[in-house]
Every structure is written in structure tokens, then in C-alpha cells.
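[Discussion] Sanity-checking designs against the backbone

I'm trying to build intuition for which residues belong where. Below is a C-alpha cell string of 317 positions. I'd appreciate it if someone posts a full sequence so I can compare it with mine line by line.
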């Protein structure tokens, strides 16, 4: 398959598929069947929920608003279809693999990461119960407002980098940091809290190596991921910093940092052009982030000490 064609498919990527222990359940076997009022049961854990509405959907997965048990608690239920060739594996899976979405997100419990409350599987579907953030994702919010005020960019900066610093300390790379995977809550109509979600592509790695798969979303991919020769592709946690930088640029300016040309070639060559709409302190941060060489790219821990943040914290204290 042509690399550029594959990247175009990844441009509209849906959640990755991963295995975790299966349970013998008499409940729904396909998320295509789920309608408002339907109930989902994990009899092994005595856990149940009722479908309220559909929140979002992709090719392999749908996300529902659900009501849990007999309480008023609302969660997001991510239902991921099992490919036919994986169903036999799912039936016999007996332990949680370290690379599984459920296992990693359960290990990464942090106030700036979307909480994975529960997970189980039927023969045809994986189910993840996730913390619900009512304002949705940052991409949806950006479409509504055009660009984000500077004080909220600073909050975004602090919250997302705290999440990245934590998962990197735990030894994982997220590998799909983008606006669609950053959820937010509002207070008086303004961004109040940001949390990193969707660990479908997360993997053990070091800062600069350990990952060799071409994956992610092309707009947010770091240059080291888009390598034509697979034998030379080796990257690590620093791809998350690049994705953070693209996200921050879009929130700050309402614009993507790439031009009208071939997106694949621009990503490969780190051909970003910073918008003149950016404030000088935001541009200064991005000049340290959107750097082609991952070893010269600032790390999450470094960026939490930026002048922009120090100034913001000083004026807001």
C-alpha cells in the first residue's frame, strides 16, 4: 500500500483496537444494536448502564451518553467493534496486555487525564466506561469560538502538559495528541479544565524511541513518524509534544500551521508556518515545540517552566 494513501486514511483515524480480558455476557454483542433505553451488563463485575444517547461515532467505535445503575451518574461509554479476525483471540484472552487501551488508561490515573471507570468485552465489542466532560472536545469548542483567549491558552498549556509529563514519567507515549482527544469542562461558559483522553494508540516507549508503527492523525503527526522507510522509523514520547504544539497553535490562532500544499510533504519536512495572530509568548513556546529534531524539541517538563506560564501564574495569583 502506498504510504501517502495510508496516511490519508489515518487523517480520519478512529480509535485503535486493543485487547483486554473478555467475559461471558448475555448482553449486546454489537454497538450497532444500541439504542436509547438499551441496557448494557457486565455480569462478572455486576456493572450495568442504560443508553441515553449517541455522542459521537467513528468507523470502528461509537461513544454513548449512559446512565449508570440506579444512580443519576452519567458516563461516556465507548463501544469498539471487534474485527472478525480478532474475535477468536478475544475469546481466549486471559490477561491484560500492557499496551491495551484499558490497561494503560487504568494505570494512568491523574486529574488531567480522562478517568477510565470500568472496561469489559463481549464477543463482538469492547466497552470502556469513561468520565464524562459535558463540554466535549477542544476541536468542537474551537469550531464554536474561532480561537481561544490567552488566559485559557495558558490553562490549556498547564493542564495538557501536566498530563503528558505524567504519562511520560509512567513510560508511555500517547501517540495521538490532538484537539479531538483533549476534552474540556466549562465554568460560566469559559474553559475551566482540560483532560487528555483516548489512549487507543498509547504504547510503552522512551523519550526518543520504542515506537515503529505509522499511526496517529496526519495533521498532528510529528516528522519522525512520517518516515518513508519503515526500517528507519523509530520514535518515542516526543511525538506527543509535537501534537500538543499543533493543538496549541490551532487554539491560539484558529488556524492550522500548514499551508495549502501537499500535507504529507509538509509534515515530513516540519514545514510549519506560525500564524501572525499568535501572541509573542505563545509563538516563543511553539518555536521550542515545533522543532523537526525530537532531541532538540522541548520536553513537557521543560515547557511547564516557560516564561509564558511563569508570567500567567504571577498575574493570576
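Best answer:
Here's mine. Compare freely.
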Amino acid at each position: 500500500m502506498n504510504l501517502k494513501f495510508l496516511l490519508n486514511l489515518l487523517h480520519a483515524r478512529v480509535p485503535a483496537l486493543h485487547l483486554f480480558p473478555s467475559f461471558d455476557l448475555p448482553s449486546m454483542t454489537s454497538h450497532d444494536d444500541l439504542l436509547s433505553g438499551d441496557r448494557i451488563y457486565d455480569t462478572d463485575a455486576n456493572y450495568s448502564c442504560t443508553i441515553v444517547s449517541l455522542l459521537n461515532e467513528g468507523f470502528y467505535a461509537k461513544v454513548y451518553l449512559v446512565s449508570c445503575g440506579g444512580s443519576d451518574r452519567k458516563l461516556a461509554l465507548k463501544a469498539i467493534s471487534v474485527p472478525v479476525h480478532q474475535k477468536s483471540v478475544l475469546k481466549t484472552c486471559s490477561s491484560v496486555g500492557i499496551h491495551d487501551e484499558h490497561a494503560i488508561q487504568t494505570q494512568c490515573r491523574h486529574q488531567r487525564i480522562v478517568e477510565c471507570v470500568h472496561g469489559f468485552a463481549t464477543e463482538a465489542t469492547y466497552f470502556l466506561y469513561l468520565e464524562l466532560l459535558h463540554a466535549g472536545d477542544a476541536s468542537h469548542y474551537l469550531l464554536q469560538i474561532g480561537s481561544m483567549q490567552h488566559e485559557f491558552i495558558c490553562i490549556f498549556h498547564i493542564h495538557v502538559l501536566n498530563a503528558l509529563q505524567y504519562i511520560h514519567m509512567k513510560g508511555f507515549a500517547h501517540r495521538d495528541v490532538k484537539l479531538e482527544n483533549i476534552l474540556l469542562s466549562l465554568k460560566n461558559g469559559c474553559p475551566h479544565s482540560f483532560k487528555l483522553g483516548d489512549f487507543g494508540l498509547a504504547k510503552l516507549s522512551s523519550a526518543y524511541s520504542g515506537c515503529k508503527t505509522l499511526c496517529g492523525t496526519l495533521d498532528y503527526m510529528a516528522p519522525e513518524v512520517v518516515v518513508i522507510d519503515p526500517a528507519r522509523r523509530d520514535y518515542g514520547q516526543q511525538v506527543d509534544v509535537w501534537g500538543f504544539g499543533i493543538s496549541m497553535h490551532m487554539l491560539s490562532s484558529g488556524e492550522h500551521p500548514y499551508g495549502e500544499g501537499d500535507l504529507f510533504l509538509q509534515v515530513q519536512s516540519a514545514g510549519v508556518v506560525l500564524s501572525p495572530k499568535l501572541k509573542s509568548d505563545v509563538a516563543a513556546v511553539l518555536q521550542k515545540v515545533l522543532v523537526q529534531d525530537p532531541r532538540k524539541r522541548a520536553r513537557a517538563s521543560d515547557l511547564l517552566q516557560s516564561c509564558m506560564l511563569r508570567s500567567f501564574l504571577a498575574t493570576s495569583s
